Amino acid sequence: MTDLSTTWLGLKLRNPIVVSSSSLTGSLDKLKEAEAAGVGGVVLKSIFEEQLTLEAQEIESKLQAGAGFQEATSSYFADIPMDYGPADYLKLIGDAKKGLKIPVVASINCISAGSWSEYAKKIEGAGADAIELNLYFLPTDPKRSGGDIEKVYLDVVHDVRKRTRLPISVKLHPFLTSIPHMVARIAEAGANGVTLFNRFYQPNFDVDKLEIANTLQLSRPEDALLPLRWIAILYGRVKVDFAATSGIHDGRAVVKMILAGASVTQVASVIFKHKTQHVGEMLRELEGWMKEKEYASVADFRGMLSQKSNPDPAAFERAQYIKTLVGHD
Fold it and tell me: What does the mean pLDDT of the chain come to?
């Protein structure tokens, strides 16, 4: 019998497909729908640091009272529709744990360390199985160095690690000077896993209305190549569990990520496109490939195409780069 189960952040999952943090995981009904479709786990829709520090209904007044933001920024947050506040989020965690049998991972979308991190204790108390820290901080100040930005990230991990015993995965973006070094330092700071990669929101301009157009771009299958590459490089070199996200649209993409070394794959865009029943098709593809290759379990081929045993990954990557360009007519 084919064993699709996997272990991620110390949690046992029935298979490596996890619904990533999104509106798909923002209500108990949607969570139950995902579980019924066959996913191995869920990452709840994020609660934002701004909600924790300002309280959704009091953003304007607390900003003016000096809650850590400049008063001029109040207009940026005042008209944002918040689905729930901190208490509502804890209730969602509790309801999910009571209503589901699969692991439930809470998500905090954050940009800094601070008093909000005390909330991690409450997440633990509400029953979450783990926390994913979604570090979404876009550097805009030319005077801040890469080292300054990395310190912000590490401070967040240190702070949350001190306040909870829950497993922590850190969701990183790919725009770092040294991804391997940063992943290693995050592991040293106490993280149990990393999720590669967060996709930064890319603004567009409406040239007719002369304003910013806020649009969410769904991932494409080719987006999977970026996490595939870095997980294959890092697997076995840094002692963390890897979750792959972005561009995973079918079962063969799941296979590729596991071959690279991923413990789980996170999906969202493909469900937005094809609804939750597509998960079943992905699982059938995964299982069919395993039977064809005669693998009894996911663990049998995890990391098989990683660079774990490669003594010089940089030289290997350089050689592949040159080979691709030279061989292209």
Answer: 89
Q: What is the DSSP letter of 326?
A: H
Model confidence band, residue 202 (pLDDT cutoffs 50, 70, 90): confident
What's the pLDDT tens digit per position in 262-280?
999 999 999 999 999 999 9
Cβ atoms of residues 194 and 242 within 8 Å: yes
**Using an 8 Å Cβ cutoff, are 115 and 86 in contact?**
no
Per DSSP, 24 falls in state: G
Give dist(CA 36, CA 100) in Å, integer.
10
**Domains of the chain with CATH codes:** 6-45+83-326 (3.20.20.70)
pLDDT of residue 75: 55
Q: How far apart are CA 161 and CA 145, in angstroms?
A: 25
Q: In whole angstroms, what is the distance from residue 275 CA to residue 23 CA?
A: 13
CA distance 266 to 174: 16
Indicate the DSSP class of residue 276. Answer: T
Instruction: State how far Cα 281 lies from the chain centre.
Output: 23
- pTM, two decimals, is 0.88
Q: What is residue 132's three-state secondary structure? A: strand
Report the range out of 74-78, 149-153, 253-257 with the highest average pLDDT. 253-257
79 pLDDT higher than 60: no
The CB density around residue 35, as the number of other CB atoms within 10 Å, is 21
Contacts (Cβ under 8 Å, ≥6 apart) of 86: 47, 51, 52, 55, 119, 122
Are 156 and 131 spatial neighbours (Cβ–Cβ below 8 Å)? no
